[in-house]
Design brief:
The protein is mainly α and 71 residues long. Helices cover 49% and strands 0% of the residues. The chain contains three helices and no strands. 0% of the residues are buried.
């Protein structure tokens, strides 16, 4: 395991997550290089969305439903 250039050991897990989010948000779209496989997958998903429309449901709708018991 490599040693990080910066010592984050003094940060709590929530603080590390906030830092991670801030670092991720600081990147511009053009800063992120995708592999050919990732690009192909994104294109396939875009095409499927355009063809079939959204497949999910709003989370507010789902939260209002009672939990179903398995069995």
């Amino acid at each position: 395991m490599s040693v990080p250039k910066f010592d984050f050991s003094h940060l709590s897990p929530p603080e590390r997550l906030r830092l991670l989010e801030e670092l991720w948000d600081s990147l511009a779209e053009e800063d992120i290089e995708l592999t050919p496989e990732q690009t192909a997958e994104l294109e396939a998903r875009r095409e499927r969305l355009e063809r079939d429309g959204p497949a999910g449901r709003p989370w507010r709708d789902v939260l209002g439903e009672p939990e179903q018991q398995g069995g």
